[in-house]
Amino acid sequence: EPNTEPIASATISMSIPAFAGEYFFRDGDFLLRPGLEVVIYMRGRYTNPDLLTKDDAATLDVTATGLEGANLTSTVTGDSDASFDPTGVPITPYYQVFHGVVTEASHDYSGGEYTASMSCSDVLHFWQNLKISTNGAVFGPRPGGAASLVEPTLQGHTFQGASPYSIIYTLYRVGFGASGAVEYNLEQETNVSANSEVTGQTHYKAAAAWWEKRWASDSIHLMMYGADGSLYNAYSQSYLGAFSGKNPEQLKTLLGKGKTDSKALSATADKALAKLARDLGYNPLSTQVSVAVDKGGNTSRQDALKQQAFCLDISLLGNVNLFETEYLSKLEIANAVRTITGFEFYQDVTGNLVFKPPFYNMDTSADPVYVIDDGDLISISQSEREPEATYIKGTGSHFQNTKGVGLDGWLGMNSTYIDYRLVAQFGWRESEFESSYISDTRALFVLAMNRLDLVNIGCKSASITIPLRPELR
Fold first, then answer.
1. 201 pLDDT tier (thresholds 50, 70, 90)
2. Which tens digits make up the pLDDT trace of 387-414?
3. H, E, C per residue of the chain
């Protein structure tokens, strides 16, 4: 069940003859168990004649006179028969459709055979249980030292002021996350800082090292897209992750300077970093969205980098946690970013983690893989219901990404968009939203128009069933 919502799932059912049961048991234990990594492939629908090359022809031990009437009697051990070019043979490839782990496994025996079933979730399943310290306790334990990622902050939140790209990039890079001692008491007994008798390091550091290596696997990459649909390369991702988040250590790495004091990371360094990013293909306009154009040609733009999932809360400034560390799971933080941006974050069927805007306006009609003809339909069902709202109220602030400045409510900015066509049909139905990153009433009004469409997105829905097509993504 692949989708653009974390977490995707899969179910595997097996029937095992009794004589083959010995391959699935060892010392009385069933080998299919939670924690196993699962990769599922399915054969595609469309053939591809470009999968074989000239070099592959030398490895064939069967030659043919052509696609029609193949002569399978004459065998060769090389490319001595030049009459047959295997590079034109259409082959139906396999496609990866799932990458995850087994979360539940069961088996039973009846009627001379074993039956087994496994429930699987993609790797974002682990993000539910990997924690990030959003404000560390001053006297709390830090197994592994600074590597524990448990540090106090005077800003109220570790990700305060960070852009959506910076947060997603950081979540991907930290791997295991922070040590999970939720609270600490000077009189308690705990093994949170226990050391390994083999390595001498803390068990937390060993666990973190395993996860860092696991997330560094070539099978899992981060794919981030701009608002214009462009795919960022590795350097652009680092630029968005480090520069927008103002992370000095990553800035040093990107600038290629092993030792750089704080003065070097000034506006001059920022400009050098921005120039290097542009030289390597980064488009600074790729994160901006043109939301409105008036009669004079003036545009009202919204930059995704200005959206903050955790904006400045003045009431939290200077608050220090002495004994209790505040945590959020990696998935909770990622979902907060999805909510504020409207972007999608999920694991693709290829195994990659994808952070992108919804490509609802892409025209794929020229590619037959993404076209569903009438003859492909096994079944189709459609439904329509009344809208959730016919008008919407939006509330903003005179200051971007701030809370507790005393200008909320009636002192802040407000915009109301009314869809009179819906009002005429269904009456007055209200919806409302708050925005912390809009400080212009005109932009807030345009945002209200878009938000009303999102509120009523479920008014019309449909579901179809088609034959298996793993190429369709």
1. confident
2. 999 999 998 877 776 766 555 555 578 8
3. CCCCCCCCEEEEEEEEEHHHHHHHEECCEECCCCCCEEEEEEECCCCECCCCCHHHHCCCCCCCCCCCCCCCCCCCCCCCCCCCCHHHCCECCEEEEEEEEEEEEEEEEECCEEEEEEEEEEHHHHHHCCEEEEECCCCCCCCCHHHHCCCCCCCCCCCCCCCHHHHHHHHHHHCCCCCCCCECCCCCCCCCCCECCCCCCEHHHHHHHHHHHHHCCCCCCEEEECCCCCECCHHHHHHHHHCCCCCHHHHHHHHCCCCCCHHHCCHHHHHHHHHHHHHCCCCCCCCEEEEEECCCCCEEEEEHHHCCCCCEEHHHCCCCCCCECEEEEHHHHHHHHHHHHCCEEEECCCCCEEEECCCCCCCCCCCHHHCCCHHHCCEEEEEECCCCCCEEEEEECCCCCEECCCCCHHHCEEEEEECHHHHHHHCCCEEEEECCCCCCHHHHHHHHHHHHHHHCCCCEEEEEECCCCCCCC
